[in-house]
Amino acid sequence: MRTAAVVLAAGSASRFAGGQHKLLTDFRGRPLVVWAVEQALAAGFEETLVVTGAVDLSGVLPTEVTVIENRRWSEGQATSIQAAVGWARDDGFDAVVIGLGDQPLVPPEAWKAVAASSSPIAVATFDGQRRPPTRLAASVWPLLPLEGDQGARVVMTGNPELVEAVSCVGQAIDIDTVEDLARWS
Length: 185
Fold this sequence. Notes:
By secondary structure, this protein is an alpha/beta fold. The protein has five helices and nine strands.
């Protein structure tokens, strides 16, 4: 089974009031997005994709990732997921594991644990809370929304029988605000 890692990094970061886009902001000595991307790369997927949009990340991303530009990023997260799924479908992948560019402390072990599931949808749980990364088998890709800010969550809610919760190690914190950045730096 061919599975690709996907890091969503296309949004505008509208809740972050820092001097630059949050994904480029320093987090423990490196740009925030680099942490999430390097964690996904370290999990050893056949391919690691980064979906970009609102900000140019080309100067900070590792050369071994495949960058997908989502020109429709302002229409919501669903368009980024659709861009990744479309690429994966065209390249013959059977599943994607999707994580977020603003979650720097999700370790490779969490990516691997979710990927190892045979369920159509597998979602990581950290201390009992469902958070990305989330594995989506090709069989559920047609169920994903085409636009808006909800991605797999809407499919999981409507089809709980398709979902496996996978207990993971790590911290699934989001850096959404400058306060979050200060708290976790």
